[in-house]
Amino acid sequence: MPVPFPYHNPLLNRRVRRRAAAFTGESYRLGASEQQLIQVMVDESRTAGRRLVIVFAPVHPTARAMLLKDDLRELSAYGETLATHEHVTVIDATSVLTAQDFYDEIHVATSGARRLTTLIAKSMAPAH
Prior knowledge:
Blueprint: H1 12-23, H2 32-48, E1 52-56, H3 61-66, H4 69-82, E2 88-92, H5 110-124
């Protein structure tokens, strides 16, 4: 359920940092089982003659700054590899939103939802 305006709380960045710190030492990378599942989706969509759209979800900027940069680079590189399939569209939205586009450390506010929806729509629009 969208919220009509971003949730601004002076403690929000502290909460975001605390939650991101919980991931410190853990990998934000896709494991072998996740990659196998995605490959099955790629193969099945190709066999069915359908387009597959994969969206890497937005990450709050404070959390993004604390996550391992190598993990996000690896995710981006993996997305580029997936996008080489003619029927696959990959939308990397991990860094497209600002802190004001979130109403808490995970959920996007109305402005974030609009920006994300616009990005997805433009990415899926047929080329003229």
